[in-house]
Amino acid sequence: MVVLVMAGALHAEPVCQPCHARQSRQHAASPHAAALYPAALHPLRAQFGKAADLRRGSGYLFRFDFTGPGGKVRATDSKDVMELPLEWAFGSGQQAVTFVTRVNQEFYVEHYGSYYPALQGFGPTPGQDVLQPDSLARAAGVLYPLRDPQSGIDGCFGCHSTGPVQFAFDGQVQLGQPGVQCLACHSDTTAHVAQPDQHRPGNPGKLSAAGLNDFCGRCHRPPASAGTKPDWNYAWNVRHQPLYLAESRCFVKSKGKLSCLTCHDPHQAVAKQPASSYNQKCEGCHPQTKPVCRQQSPANCIDCHMPAVTPQSPLRFSNHWIGVYGDGAKLKPLR
Questions:
Q1: What angle do CA 320, 321, 326 make, to 5 degrees?
Q2: pLDDT tens digits for 192-214?
Q3: pTM to 2 decimals?
């Protein structure tokens, strides 16, 4: 069942649940499933309303209000006042929640203020803290066109929802399902639902390691365009895991044995897995019978060989360029 939803609608229950109860239950609790909500329905809505005001430099003040049926933000520069609704909430809240609103039939605005559970409050939306606005309208956020290969809001909705992204004549987005649901990764399901024994749906788990890297990279992607060499010294690039995994010696020397699925169950939340579970994955190729760790015993592989990078506090991303890092280095390994 694929349901057409507009802002304010609930997430649809996937048709997969009756036969795949365990995977559906695990996935429903994952950040993927909660990647997009109408802002008024986000599970963290109550916390949004408790957060303090947000200032941008010394000239702009943002006050968020969730007391009504929908959220809104009131921005002022002490002379002018602008009030905007908060329509869509991108992100489960594991790291952050960013708000997006339709401006007109041509543009959406990504609001300056994002909610960070680690701060229990609002802070600059990732990447916007370095911008220097010269007006209240520019301070409110960044404008995105509906469709554009590099900067269209359709790409944002596409990676945070399931099904085709369409826009009505007035620019209002129309989605299949909010969040990354089953059909986002498992294709050709119509025949499978009708005749489950005769037809199998598309299964990314059957792809090669490189193919899976490309598949996951559709959304967990490098920001650079095709043919452009990434800037390995730019901390924000670390959030694009497939790009970095492909550079690691573990990935290259495994000859296809190491892939995203080696360490990550796509139906579960990454944060719920203890560090020891990842260490066990490492021991599959680097057994403890061999003294591979010179720093500590027992070894904690991830801390040293996949260091956490903070491009903007309080965000943390594990560097998937698995390697040997120098003291204080977190962006590029020595080998």
A1: 120
A2: 888 888 888 889 999 999 999 99
A3: 0.89
